[in-house]
């Protein structure tokens, strides 16, 4: 009895890791979500950094700890410890940059290797196609193509976002938190 | 375990030994019969002992205590100290002031300055006299210390402190400078209090780090030299020791005719040796322990520590072995801490004195211990973490698992424990991380940022290795703020790029196998990212586990596309695979493996070659064309259409080839069909720009395609193609090519004589008329002459019926008259033609003539006008007046014009003619 009481009082913490090529807008997305701020200035992230935000999911209070990583960093330099215990991984690409989309595969694979989840096929990922605010003519990755990829990788939820215009950002992170929570519940069962 | 072996020096001496002293390869024995025997010992080449000298009656009474100092022998002879020359063994002097002496002890050489005189402490009742012995042997009393009781045991702690023991009072120290006594341990308030009495056996042993072991009867306690107890340790002997001493790293006690050797740390008995009748134990020459009975003397030779360690290892006592090494080589705590980090740069900087041999010894012992833990105790996590702490090579750790071992097939059962495999997996992942950094480092040793290379002077190592190590260690610090990482690259792993690759291969290959056992879901991820898995091994492992999809991904990652494709048979899978490949680099594979796709669906097959490729070089295009040529003309056509239509290729070869292909197909269809030529009205549509009607036959559609192509393409070579056209069919197409060659007469001849298609001829003339081109300026006249000229004999009867009526010719004349040379046309007309018919033609021709002559005149006059205007302007300019005086300067060289020839610009600027020409 007392154990359960203690459990319910403890606010669950979700560790979320944002990955993607450099310059796709990982830091901007995080800032938009947590601080509701956007800047056009590009500043490369060094190493890794995190922000936390408390959210309510299905009536449950949850703290999300969002780890932003440097896209330039080659994956392995951050180390296993960094990825271990992640509850969700957000893969970000720039819809106006085909190469950043092509790299999703290797970001996902490297993440799985480092985080070593017990059930890699059902690990909660979310894919964000960012920078949809730019003009349509610059777009290189169609929604169809992105959706096809997500479908193929095990029905990963896909959102087209704009950190600048705050399009879909809240919804994406909300979905992510929900999926991560569901996954956790599954594991507990 | 044997830590010492016994060597007998003197056996069954016929006289009784009173006391003995050994120094520098000599052994002096004083007997109860007041004789002095001097033996010489040598250890090399082999042990040898012989009597070197002897003196009878060297002392007056029984000698109880002897010591050697500054080349002199001191002996307590009947309660008085006497000194003898060591070399000659002759008496130097008796020191009367020492009357009543019971004990003497020389201050050890290492406790005093080399330049100072030797000090000897002599116990005389409740006093300690300190004598200084100068080099010439003269002894002078320098201090007289009072002690609470007569010391039974006296030990020099340092040049200023003497520790004493008294069986009733306890242990105390006396300071030379202050003559003050400090109790180390007083019996009346101690745990010894129950056993007070003069019979109690007491002892003092000096341990490292200023600690002391005090014994009384069976018990021993450890204290600091200031008397503060070290409560955490205690020692119980098996009996009351007659004497105790410390011989690194053991304490030894002589107990009832036996020597007990104990470990200082555990207190456990390490070895026991019986010495029947042994009476005393002391530290003698070469710091060896000497044991004496009444007629024998032995000494204890320590077993070499390597042998001891081997022995411990052989009996799986790894902790003992390790402790032994630690006790032996390093006495201070911080040095011990360093064991775990032996390979870190820091150690080499600060602890140069630690020899590599010792370090490798420790590593070896701990490594063996880890192996033992792993294989026998099954403490997998601890073992692997110990090994990685020791910076063991990943190969060693992999070899712990017989199923992954690099040593080849083993009879040992595989390690299938889940924890073991999970630990191995984590270990391999961390190694992957280290190796990836290492590889990057090797890839670009010159690209390291400068701020990551510390100044070379701070490093004890030299050259590039030092810089590399330093750079490596700094790679792992900083940058990743907030991220616990920083696994330093072990120094021994920096070796070279080849080693790094080999280790990467071992690590990745093993990781793959581990994943196959513990988490199959990650196998795909591993083979898709950059990995160094051994190809053969990975192939076998994946095939065995039927991971075919992963196998294909693995091949893809390794660039083994042929192998991958050979393992695929589903057209869809092949198609997907080929879609991922670059056609330029792998055109051979495309050609070789596209067969099944073509067999299923030609469109899909073609798509492989035409989708998503840009910037494909000509060479590749030619390969593909060649391939299609052998496959089917239709595919070749389709591909050429793609090249020309979609990629806008301007290669004449392609354009020629496609024309040829169209032609071939048309001819083929003609020969196959009985009445191929459609109605003329259908032929008309060949040249209509409108979309082909749905009702049109394939044949006609193709013809239209060809005509369109011939008319629009600028890149085919008509001079080559013309000979390929048949003489009697597909003439419309031929006409287009002839037109391109400007062979207008031939074209028109075909139109009129062979096709009897006046409209086609007119259209042709309209298209090709060019008044500026001598070959094309008179085509309308040419056509007229054809229309009016005699029919050639070859003209068929059918065509004769279609002789163009004169009225049409007149219409033609009227319509195109302006593009004809009037007189040339008129001269051709048959005389029978009524002139009236020609009126419109004449009118038009005359009008045109007049128009052109009038426009000509107009142009002439306009030109004349312009000429006059210019002349006028010239005269105006030339009549300009320039005044020249002394001050007029040349605008160029700023010198006076004077009398030189000058020129004048319109702005009245004057320059020398000479300057102007420059």
UniProtKB/TrEMBL annotation, chain A:
- Show the CDD domains listed in the entry: Rab7
Indicate yes or no for the key word Zinc-finger. Answer: no
Q: Which superkingdom?
A: Eukaryota
Q: Which InterPro entries match?
A: P-loop_NTPase (IPR027417), Small_GTP-bd (IPR005225), Small_GTPase (IPR001806)
What GO CC terms are in its UniProt record?
A: vacuolar membrane
Classification via SMART domains: RAB, RAN, RAS, RHO
Give the GO molecular function terms: GTP binding; GTPase activity
Which UniProt keyword terms apply here? GTP-binding, Lipoprotein, Nucleotide-binding, Prenylation
Cross-referenced NCBIfam families: small_GTP
Q: Which family does it belong to?
A: Belongs to the small GTPase superfamily. Rab family.
Name this protein carries in UniProt: Uncharacterized protein
TrEMBL record, chain B:
Q: Which residues form the CNH domain?
A: 14-288
Q: What topology in the membrane does the UniProt record assign?
A: Peripheral membrane protein
An example of a Gene Ontology BP annotation on this entry? intracellular protein transport
- The CHCR repeat boundaries are 612-792
A Pfam family this chain is assigned to: Vps39_1
UniProt-annotated location(s) = Endomembrane system
Going by the UniProt record, its keywords in alphabetical order are: Membrane
Give the GO cellular component terms, alphabetically: endomembrane system; fungal-type vacuole membrane
- Principal localization reads membrane
Q: Does the keyword Transport apply?
A: no
Keyword Transport tagged: no
The UniProt entry, under InterPro entries, shows: Clathrin_H-chain/VPS_repeat, CNH_dom, Quino_amine_DH_bsu, Vam6/VPS39/TRAP1, VPS39/TGF_beta_rcpt-assoc_1, VPS39/TGFA1_Znf
Question: Which family does the similarity line name?
Answer: Belongs to the VAM6/VPS39 family.
Q: What is this protein called?
A: CNH domain-containing protein
At the highest ranks, the source species' classification is:
Eukaryota, Fungi, Fungi incertae sedis, Chytridiomycota, Chytridiomycota incertae sedis
């Amino acid at each position: 009895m007392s154990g359960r009481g203690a459990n319910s009082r403890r606010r669950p913490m979700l560790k979320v890791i944002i990955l993607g090529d450099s310059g796709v807008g990982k830091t901007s997305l995080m800032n938009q979500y947590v601080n509701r701020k956007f800047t056009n200035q590009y500043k490369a992230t060094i190493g890794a950094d995190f922000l936390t935000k408390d959210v309510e999911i299905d009536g449950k209070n949850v703290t999300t700890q969002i780890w932003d990583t440097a896209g330039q960093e080659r994956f392995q330099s951050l180390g296993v410890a960094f990825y271990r215990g992640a509850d969700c991984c957000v893969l970000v690409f720039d819809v106006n940059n085909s190469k950043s989309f092509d790299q999703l595969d290797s970001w996902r694979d490297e993440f799985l290797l480092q985080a070593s989840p017990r059930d890699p096929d059902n690990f909660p990922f979310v894919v964000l196609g960012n920078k949809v605010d730019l003009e349509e003519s610059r777009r290189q990755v169609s929604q169809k193509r992105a959706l096809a990829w997500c479908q193929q990788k095990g029905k990963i939820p896909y959102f087209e976002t704009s950190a600048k215009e705050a399009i879909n950002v809240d919804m994406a992170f909300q979905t992510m938190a929900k999926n991560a929570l569901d996954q956790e519940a599954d594991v507990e069962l | 375990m044997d830590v010492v072996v016994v060597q007998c020096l003197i056996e069954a001496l016929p006289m009784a030994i009173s006391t003995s002293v050994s120094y520098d390869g000599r052994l002096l024995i004083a007997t109860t019969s007041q004789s002095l025997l001097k033996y010489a010992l040598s250890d090399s080449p082999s042990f040898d002992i012989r009597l070197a000298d002897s003196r009878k009656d060297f002392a007056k009474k029984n000698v109880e205590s002897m010591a050697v100092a500054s080349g002199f022998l001191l002996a307590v002879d009947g309660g008085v100290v006497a000194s003898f020359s060591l070399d000659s063994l002759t008496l130097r002097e008796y020191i009367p002031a020492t009357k009543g002496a019971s004990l003497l002890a020389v201050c050890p050489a290492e406790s005093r300055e080399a330049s100072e005189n030797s000090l000897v402490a002599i116990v005389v009742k409740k006093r300690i006299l300190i004598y200084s012995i100068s080099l010439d042997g003269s002894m002078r009393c320098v201090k007289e210390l009072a002690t609470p009781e007569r010391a039974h045991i006296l030990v020099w702690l340092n040049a200023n402190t003497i520790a004493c023991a008294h069986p009733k009072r306890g242990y105390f120290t006396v300071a030379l400078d202050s003559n003050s006594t400090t109790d180390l341990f007083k019996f009346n308030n101690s745990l010894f209090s129950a056993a007070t009495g003069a019979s109690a056996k007491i002892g003092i042993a000096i341990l490292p780090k200023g600690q002391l072991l005090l014994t009384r009867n069976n018990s021993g306690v450890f204290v600091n030299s200031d008397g503060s107890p070290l409560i955490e340790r205690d020692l119980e002997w098996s009996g009351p020791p007659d004497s105790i001493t410390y011989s690194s790293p053991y304490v030894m006690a002589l107990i009832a005719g036996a020597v007990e050797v104990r470990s200082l740390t555990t207190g456990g008995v390490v070895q026991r040796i019986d010495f029947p009748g042994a009476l005393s134990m002391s530290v003698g020459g070469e710091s060896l322990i000497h044991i004496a009975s009444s007629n024998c003397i032995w000494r204890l030779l320590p077993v070499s520590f390597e042998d001891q360690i081997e022995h411990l290892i052989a009996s799986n006592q790894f902790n003992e072995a390790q402790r032994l090494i630690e006790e032996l080589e390093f006495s201070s705590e911080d040095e011990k801490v360093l064991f775990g980090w032996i390979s870190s740069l820091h150690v080499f900087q600060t602890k140069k004195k630690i020899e590599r041999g010792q370090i490798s010894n420790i590593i070896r012992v701990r490594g063996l211990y880890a192996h033992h833990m792993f294989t026998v105790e099954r403490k997998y996590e601890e073992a692997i973490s110990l090994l990685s702490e020791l910076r063991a090579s990943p190969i060693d750790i992999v070899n712990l698992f017989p199923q992954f071992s690099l040593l080849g097939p083993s009879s040992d059962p595989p390690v299938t424990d889940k924890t073991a495999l999970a630990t191995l997996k984590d270990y391999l992942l961390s190694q992957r991380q280290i190796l990836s950094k290492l590889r990057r480092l090797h890839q670009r040793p010159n690209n390291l940022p400068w701020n990551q290379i510390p100044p070379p002077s701070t490093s004890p190592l030299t050259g590039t290795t030092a810089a590399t190590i330093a750079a490596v260690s700094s790679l792992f610090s900083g940058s990743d703020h907030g991220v616990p990482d920083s696994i330093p690259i072990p120094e021994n792993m920096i070796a070279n790029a080849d080693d790094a690759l080999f280790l990467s291969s071992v690590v990745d290959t093993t990781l793959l196998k581990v994943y196959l056992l513990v988490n199959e879901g990650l196998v795909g991820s591993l083979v898709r990212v950059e990995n160094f898995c051994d190809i053969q091994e990975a192939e076998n492992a994946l095939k065995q586990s039927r991971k075919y999809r992963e196998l294909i991904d693995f091949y893809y990652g390794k660039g083994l596309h042929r192998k991958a494709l050979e393992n695929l048979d589903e057209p869809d899978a092949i198609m997907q695979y080929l879609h991922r490949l670059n056609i330029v680099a792998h055109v051979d594979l495309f050609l070789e493996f596209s067969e099944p796709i073509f067999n299923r669906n030609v469109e899909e097959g073609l798509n492989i070659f035409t989708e998503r490729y840009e910037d494909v070089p000509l060479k590749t295009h030619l390969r593909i064309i060649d391939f299609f040529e052998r496959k089917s003309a239709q595919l070749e056509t389709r591909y050429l259409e793609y090249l020309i239509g979609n990629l806008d290729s301007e290669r004449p070869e392609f354009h020629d080839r496609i024309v040829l292909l169209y032609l071939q197909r048309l001819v083929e269809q003609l020969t196959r069909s009985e009445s191929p030529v459609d109605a003329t009205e259908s032929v008309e549509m060949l040249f209509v720009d409108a979309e082909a009607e749905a009702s049109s036959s394939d044949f006609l559609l193709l013809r239209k395609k060809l005509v369109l192509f011939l008319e629009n393409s600028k890149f085919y070579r008509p001079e080559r193609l013309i000979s390929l056209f048949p003489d009697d069919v597909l003439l419309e197409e031929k006409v287009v090519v002839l037109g391109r060659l400007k062979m207008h007469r031939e074209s028109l001849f075909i139109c009129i004589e062979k096709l009897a298609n006046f409209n086609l001829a007119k259209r042709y003339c309209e298209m090709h008329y060019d008044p500026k081109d001598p070959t094309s300026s008179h085509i309308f006249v040419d056509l007229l002459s054809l229309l009016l000229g005699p029919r050639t004999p070859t003209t068929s009867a059918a065509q004769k019926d279609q002789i163009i009526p004169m009225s049409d010719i007149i219409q033609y004349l009227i319509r195109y008259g302006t593009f004809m040379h009037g007189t040339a046309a008129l001269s051709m007309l048959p005389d029978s033609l009524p002139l009236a018919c020609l009126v419109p033609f004449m009118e038009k021709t005359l009008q045109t003539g007049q128009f052109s002559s009038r426009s000509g005149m107009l142009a002439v006059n306009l030109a004349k006008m312009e000429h006059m205007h210019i002349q006028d302007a010239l005269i105006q300019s030339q009549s300009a007046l320039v005044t020249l005086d002394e001050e007029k300067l040349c605008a160029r060289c700023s010198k006076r014009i004077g009398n030189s020839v000058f020129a004048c610009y319109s702005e009245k600027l004057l320059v020398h003619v000479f300057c102007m020409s420059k």
